[in-house]
């Protein structure tokens, strides 16, 4: 089971969406959008506060859709979920300004039966047949919003936060990946960061250049190179000339 804490100074903004049974879009308080930074926590094994006496998993009416690709709009989501939207009491899209290529969604259903049906219907399903992104859904026990970053990043008792790959930002947990295949296997390779279409990172900009091979800015050697993620300086490591900033 998972728990979520969101660092957010924003408020819920109602979305102009229409259910399949409605003809005209109108603001609906149960469909909302807000910005925040999500911290995802997973229960620790054999912890007294989160373990259960039976093998039956804990059920919840709260579901979390991990990573929806940004090309998939809110209207696309409604069409994707179809008639199951009728069983949803809350639908909150959470966007992170630092991760502009995808967003997450919190869904609360009317009851546990509806949550189970929603989960088994859409978990693992492709958002779009030609693409690799999957709809990955987690059962969530609780969600808390706070204006304080320190509180949001503090795990609840019996939970541990899931780390992310520093390169492709995928969760380092086999149960929470939003894509079918991780190209980089979470190692520093250009095939991974080439998926990042934004050039604000100096490392990404260097690795995606199509000109000559990079060289040390001091001695010109082309092996054992390091690049500063702040200024973009390229220098050789300690086993060469050690021209690091």
TrEMBL record:
SUPFAM superfamilies reported for this sequence: RING/U-box (SSF57850)
Transmembrane segments: none
Swiss-Prot/TrEMBL keywords: Metal-binding, Zinc, Zinc-finger
Single GO term (MF): zinc ion binding
Leader sequence segment: none
Domain UBP-type: 199-245
Keyword Zinc: yes
Any GO CC annotation of this UniProt entry: cytoplasm
Descriptive protein name: RING-type domain-containing protein
Alphabetized InterPro entries for the sequence: BRAP2/ETP1_RRM (IPR011422), RING-H2_BRAP2 (IPR047243), Znf_C3HC4_RING-type (IPR018957), Znf_RING (IPR001841), Znf_RING/FYVE/PHD (IPR013083), Znf_UBP (IPR001607)
Ranges for domain RING-type: 165-205
Keyword Zinc appears in the UniProt entry: yes
